[in-house]
Each structure stands twice: as structure tokens, then as C-alpha cells.
Amino acid sequence: MTAHGIGLVARQEVRTRLRTGRWKILLAAWFVIVNGLGLLLRLALEVDETSTFGDPGVSMFGTVLFGVLVLTLLVTPALSGQSINGDRERGTLATLQVTRLTPADIALGKLAAAWGTGLLTLVLTLPCVLWPVAEGAIGVGRAVVVLLVSALLIGVVCAVSQAWSALLARSITSVLMAYMTVFGLLAGTPLLYTLAVPITTDHKRVYSDYGSYERSIEHTERVWWLLAPNPVVILADAAPRLPERRYVVDGRVFERSPSNDPLGDLSREVRDIREGDKPQVVYSAHPGAVGGHGSSEKDDGNAVWVYGLLFDLALAAGAVTITAMRLRTPLHRVPRGVRVA
After folding, report:
1. Contact 258, 245 (CB under 8 A)
2. Nearest residue to 292 (alpha-carbon basis) of 260, 263, 250, 252
3. Tens of pLDDT along 91-121?
4. Distance between CA 285 and CA 246 in Å, rounded?
């Protein structure tokens, strides 16, 4: 495996994709639709924003990132879901296999081309993503982190889709399985978590002076890991927390994070799930605060995104390994006298 071989295969794949004018039309339509929806969302937030703690830029950033991630992951299987079996059907894969390129060169080169195309779709959404950054509602560091995580998740889906393409002979079947995998990550993980919570719930009979009643304790700390591989959960939990802001209402001082932050809200909810049904300690944001909360102090050790991202990256590594194995030619297994030395 060499960098030159990987780059050679990647360049060939990109040139093949650019030969058809449909890609240019699709990318142009993607740019107009995604950024147009982002603009409409911002106009709607400007009209409806009434919260004292609100900032339209914060809501826009989180909502657009969620939408962009989901849409990009739905587009990604089409980029690599037929990269192996499609070339095999057209008779062009064998041409690469008889060269000095190794199976890993071919697998990683095709993955680089598909991943690069997926990253291009992410780049085309930058105008509406970076709008809140330009106006100061979101820090540059937070934007860089979420974009980097989004790029890694796109690469994971590209690798898994390519593995299905190497395993299955029919292109339509491999693309369908790739979409099923994306559906499993996005919708299957919350469904499994929802089904697992009642199984782990304890029912206890509590007695008091007024009689007895049954109390149910949900042990979400036992099944939180089912949510960890979800790309939306990873993105939200990996995003750095916004700094708390100080507000004065009727002479009382409040310090709290923006209440309309979709990324932060989902992150806090997921970390509370990992914490489970335990007694909570309320912290004051600063000595003079009447309101406020110290959730950032409580859940710093309950990060979920690390485990989810490691799982997805391991899944991608396994997918690349499977692809390379499926690209091996039976050079060392042909009968003696048939093999060309």
C-alpha cells in the first residue's frame, strides 16, 4: 500500500465522476436548497424570537447542523454504495486488479474519492453554517469542532457503504443496505434505547403514613450506550458548551447557558441519561446568583460522544478491512502451471 497508489485510484474515481454533467447539476441544486432553507429558517427565527435569553444565531447554528448532518448522511450512500460492484459490473474493476495496485490501494483510493465528494457537499453548506459565527453568536472553536466531527461521520458512512458494495454483487442491493445502515444509526439506536429502558426499570413498593404506592426507577445508566453510536448524539455532545451569560431580571441576577441551543440541550439530556435516576446536587453558577444552574459541573465526566465516535470509527476501520479482503485476487490459489509468473 502506497500513498501514490491511493492517490492514483482516487484521481481516477474523481475524473470518472466529473465526466457526467449530472454531478454539477446535483451539487448546484444541493447548494441552493440547503442554503435557501437555512435562510428561511433564520427569517422565521427573527420573527418568532421572543425569549430574553434567546439568540437567533444560536438556534440557527444548531438546527442547521442537525439538518445538514442528516441530509449529508442520506446522500453519502449514493457516493460509495456501488463503487466496487458497479465497477465489477462494468468490467473496469479487473483492470485495476491486474495492475501493481494492492487491494488496500484500491479500497482506500475509492474511499478517498467518495469521502472527498461527501466533504464537498458539507463545504457547500458553509454559508448558512458560518453565518452565526460571522455575527458572533457562535465561537470559531465550536464551529471547527462540529464540522470536524461531521466530516468524520461522513467518512464512516462512506466506508460502510463501500463495504456493502464489496460484499454484495448487485448495486441496488448494496445501496439499499447502505441506507438501512444509516437508518439503523439514526433511528435504530433511539428505538433500541426506548425498548431497553422498560426492561431495566425497577418497580418498588413504597410505604408511607398515607398508604403504599409503587415507584418505578428507570436505570438509564445501564443502556445509555445504545444511544452513543447515533451521529446526531455524537455531534451534539461533542460540541463545546456555550459560555454562560449573566442576565438581570427584576433585580435578580441569573447566569445560564442560552436556552435555545439545540446542540447544548441534546447534550445535557444525553448526559443526564448516562447519569441515571440518581439524587441530583444543584450548584450555583456564582455566589451572588439567585437563579442559574451548574449542569456543566455535574456532567463533565458523563461525555457520551467519545464512546460513540470510537465505535463508529472502529466500524469504519472494519469496513475498510472487509473491502480490501474482498478485492484480493486468487493469485496464490490458482493451480500450478496456470498462474503467470
Report:
1. yes
2. 252
3. 778 777 777 888 888 899 999 998 998 899 9
4. 10
246 DSSP β-pair partners: 255
- List the beta bridge partners of residue 207: 212
- Is residue 14 classed exposed, middle or buried when 0-12, 13-18 and 19+ CB atoms within 10 A define those classes? middle
pLDDT top residue among 293 and 190: 190
Contact 33, 128 (CB under 8 A): no
SS3 340: coil
Q: How far is residue 153's CA from residue 65's CA, in Å, rounded to a whole number?
A: 13
- How do 211-217 and 245-249 pair as beta strands? unpaired
The residues that bridge with 183 in the sheet, in sequence order, are none
Rounded Cα distance between 143 and 296, Å, is 19
**CA 89 – CA 101 distance, rounded (Å):** 20
Distance CA 276, CA 220 (A): 5
Please give the span between the terminal C-alpha atoms of the chain, in angstroms, as a whole number: 21
What is the reported pTM?
A: 0.83
Contact (Cβ atoms closer than 8 angstroms) between residue 128 and residue 35: yes
Structure confidence by residue, pLDDT tens digits, 211-252: 666 677 777 888 899 999 999 999 999 988 876 666 555 556
What is the structure's pLDDT at 251?
A: 59
Range with the lowest mean pLDDT among 7-21, 96-110, 317-331?
7-21
Phi-psi region of 245 (alpha: psi -120 to 50; beta: other; left: phi over 0): beta
